[in-house]
Amino acid sequence: MSTRRLPATWLTTLLLGAACYWRSAPDTDAPGIVATVPMPGFPAMLHSANVEGEVRVVVPVDANGNPDRRAARVIRSSHELFSLAVMNAVAKWRFEPRRRDRQGVADSVTVHWMFVLNRKDCPGVPESVCRRTAKDDSAALATPQRTSLGKAGRGAVEGMTTACLLPGYAACIGVRSS
């Protein structure tokens, strides 16, 4: 009788071990970032007007890690141009999808992006920039920008684009309008 139970015990042990193994297979909590190029740039018009802001969007990510821009939605934005800059960049990012039982699963990522003007550590603004009008965005495009990106919890990332604060075009110190 014990010879009959021995194979059944082995089979039960084997099945329980396999169930534990498959259940303990690592599932990722949320999509992770694989490629984030390009990063959102400071919109030139808002930069030249010295406007800061932020955007929060929810971006669906398919089982292959591709963001779905058409289904993405803006939760909060201080300006439409900031939203556009973030959406254009995030649409080109790639994610490592969330996994369940070793298969990619569609999910979403919340992206919180801030646009900040740096008031220090910026190079001096040349005289030619001060003489331009506020309608000329080329001055804003020529200033250096820095971006940073990091995780902000489960299923969320935070980023920031920092650009140099441009002096008021009419108020450049020591430069007279021509």
What can be said about this structure in brief?
It contains five helices and nine strands, in the order H-E-H-E-E-H-E-E-E-E-H-H-E-E. With 178 residues, the chain is of the alpha+beta class.
Structural account:
The strands form three sheets. This protein has a five-stranded mixed beta sheet, covered by helices on one side. Strands 1-4 form a two-stranded antiparallel sheet. The protein has one domain (28-168): 2-Layer Sandwich (TolA/TonB C-terminal domain), CATH 3.30.2420. It is of the alpha+beta class. Helices cover 26% and strands 31% of the residues. Residues 18-25, 132-141 and 169-178 have low confidence and may be disordered.
Radius of gyration: 26 Å
Distance, first to last CA:
107 Å
Q: Decide which structural class fits the backbone.
A: alpha+beta
Q: How much helix is in the residues? A: 25-40%
Count of alpha and pi helical runs: 5
Residue stretches low in confidence (pLDDT < 50, at least 5 long) are 18-25, 132-141, 169-178
Kindly give the count of domains. Answer: 1
| CATH level-four homologous superfamily name | TonB
Within the largest sheet, what's the order of strands?
3-2-7-9-8
- Average pLDDT, all residues: 75
Query: What form results from the Cα inertia axes?
Result: elongated
The CATH level-2 architecture is identified as: 2-Layer Sandwich
Number of strands: 9
Describe the biggest sheet?
5 strands, mixed
CATH fold-level assignment? TolA/TonB C-terminal domain
Beta fraction: 25-35%
The top level CATH class name: Alpha Beta
Give the ordered list of helices and strands: HEHEEHEEEEHHEE
